[in-house]
Specification:
- By secondary structure, the protein is α/β, with parallel strands linked by helices.
- It folds into two domains: 108 residues, no CATH class; 241 residues, Spore Coat Polysaccharide Biosynthesis Protein SpsA, Chain A, CATH 3.90.550.
- It is built from 15 helices and ten strands.
- The chain has an eight-stranded mixed beta sheet with strand order 3-2-1-4-7-6-8-5, sandwiched between helices. A two-stranded antiparallel ribbon has the order 9-10.
- The longest helix is centred in the C-terminal third of the chain and has 24 residues.
- The radius of gyration is 22 Å and the shape is globular.
- The model has no long low-confidence stretch (mean pLDDT 93).
């Protein structure tokens, strides 16, 4: 038993040394939109963007999303195409009233979706409907902005994103929006969600054309329409449950991509309790593992050794395993602190990361169980995991 504990402690320590020193500096949070384009950077006056918003039962947030887009301090031309994906509420009517109230009814087009065809996920089908509408035009925009209905933009967000994409020649520029971090559940789990995502896809490597790592964040994805069309459009990833990372991989084959954090785009989606966080994660956690039982076992073992074992060995282990585990635990805490600081939270919360990781481990198990019951990928009445 002592040999196993010692091996586990030193393996965990080796993993954290690698993550800190050689894993793209993911934990430092250096890739942010304020560095993507400097303050004062402007897009050309003739630049044009069409925002495509797939929306399903978003009456409570759609006005905030639409109004924040129409209020952008953008030198170019911005239009919105809202794809109403079989909403049962007043999503389309609310969006239309919002645009009319701002004197911008001519900048909003609303399309009605009949729902996804076989083999498509709902969001991608709606996005493709909007993209097809744009591709049918004679004049094409410089960029297509795919954005979720439950986010709001600060007035300078689009200008900065377009200016950065043009300066870097990016075919896709994506922002991980600032998630809500107000409830107790959000304060414990949201920074960890961002931390784990960056560990899976180190942003610096995503943004390095020489690296094979590719990803995007679905809330805000600014794409060049011609490269997207050459790649086969969204039909090329029609069944992807994690559609943003699939789009990132698709577009990186066409040219440079960029992914970063932002304080300028905010999620309006609340996660007031533990169960709400659980539903968010279980929707796609097993899809991240390719629906593979072997990968699931590997992920569970990895989470146990890398996150849980250091704390347990610090509390209950014996020398020298305890000392090695203590160093691993200290590195873990140090790596997590920038994520807490990004969300304005106290650094002492980093001490609880192993317990938060244990919850995420359970979410992954629950995601696999839901998939086995035929209810994977649940989103507003649809089960989309295959």
């Amino acid at each position: 038993m002592e040999t196993i504990a010692l091996a586990t402690a030193f393996f965990g320590l080796a993993v954290w040394l690698y993550l800190i020193a050689f894993h793209g500096g993911f934990w430092r949070l250096t890739e942010q939109d304020r560095k993507f384009a400097s303050d004062g950077a402007a897009a050309p006056k003739g630049a044009s963007v069409v925002a495509i918003i797939p929306a399903r039962d978003e009456e409570d947030v759609i006005a905030q999303c639409v109004s924040s887009l129409l209020a952008q301090k953008f030198w170019g031309r911005l239009e919105i195409v809202l794809v109403d994906d079989q909403s049962s509420d007043g999503t389309a009517e609310t969006a239309r009233s919002c645009a009319a109230g701002m004197g911008a009814a001519d900048r909003l087009t609303i399309l009605q979706s009949d729902g996804p065809a076989a083999g498509w996920t709902g969001k991608l089908a709606a996005m493709q409907l909007g993209f097809d509408h744009i591709r049918a035009r004679d004049a094409q925009p410089d960029f297509v902005l795919f954005c979720d209905a439950d986010i709001a933009f600060d007035p300078i967000a689009l200008e900065r994103l377009v200016a950065g994409a043009l300066a870097r020649g990016a075919v896709l520029a994506s922002l991980m929006v600032q998630l809500r971090c107000e409830s107790a559940a959000e304060r414990w789990f949201v920074p960890a969600f961002v931390f784990f995502f960056q560990m899976l896809y180190p942003f610096a490597r995503v943004n390095d054309p020489r690296s094979g790592v590719a990803a995007a964040a679905g809330g805000v994805m600014l794409a060049r329409p011609e490269p997207l069309a050459r790649a086969g459009g969204l039909a090329a990833i029609r069944s992807a449950l994690i559609d943003d990372c699939a789009l990132g991989a698709l577009m990186k084959k066409q040219g440079p991509i960029w992914l970063g954090l932002t304080h300028s785009v905010h999620s309006l989606r609340p996660y007031p309790g533990y169960r709400d966080i659980e539903r968010m994660v279980t929707r796609s956690a097993y899809a991240q593992l390719g629906f593979s039982p072997l990968r699931l076992l590997g992920a569970l073992a990895g989470m146990a050794v890398v996150y849980l074992a250091p704390l347990l060995l610090v509390l209950f282990g014996e020398t020298p395993a305890r000392e090695a585990a203590l160093v691993a635990y200290a590195l873990m805490i140090q790596a997590y602190m920038p994520s807490l600081r990004f969300y304005g939270l106290s650094r002492w919360r980093a001490l609880a990361l192993p317990l938060v990781a244990a919850c995420y481990t359970w979410f992954t198990i629950e995601s696999a169980l839901q998939h086995g019951r035929g209810k994977g990928g649940a989103w507003k009445g649809r089960y989309q995991a295959h």
